[in-house]
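Please fill in the sequence for the structure shown.

STRUCTURE ENCODING:
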């Protein structure tokens, strides 16, 4: 079986602003790509930002939904200190802190923010499990 890339695509009301948020707020590496989309390389998957109405149209659903969307995204880091740092960076870039960083009932440490388009993100440290390669193990990701 050939290697596959999973892509999580978030609709955004302002592609330029959201792209800057993910570059500065979370420090995600943006891939060089032309067009009406921004791609960010992640461990084992990519994040894509795409205009809200176009993404809704692609899925053939109305673009005016609101409230909890039944999904959250997670940004996993290697320490409690990094949880605090990422939440601060996200807030400084325009995110709203929803749940301040705190000890979890499962033994980790996490907090939540909503990004500029109200997508919920958990920033978490799990002392029992690392879901991907360590930064030194990463390889270059080619563009789509």
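FILLED IN BY: designer on duty
SEQUENCE:
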């Amino acid at each position: 079986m050939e290697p596959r890339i999973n892509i999580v695509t978030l609709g955004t009301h302002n592609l330029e602003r959201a792209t800057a948020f993910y570059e500065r707020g979370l420090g995600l590496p943006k891939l060089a790509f032309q067009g009406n989309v921004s791609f960010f390389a992640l461990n084992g998957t990519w994040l894509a930002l795409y205009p809200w109405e176009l993404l809704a149209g692609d899925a053939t659903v109305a673009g005016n939904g609101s409230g909890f969307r039944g999904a959250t995204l997670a940004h996993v880091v290697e320490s409690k200190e990094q949880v605090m740092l990422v939440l601060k960076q996200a807030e400084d870039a325009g995110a709203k802190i929803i749940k301040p960083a705190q000890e979890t009932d499962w033994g980790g440490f996490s907090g939540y923010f909503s990004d500029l388009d109200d997508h919920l993100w958990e920033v978490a440290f799990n002392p029992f499990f690392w879901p991907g390669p360590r930064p030194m193990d990463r390889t270059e990701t080619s563009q789509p």
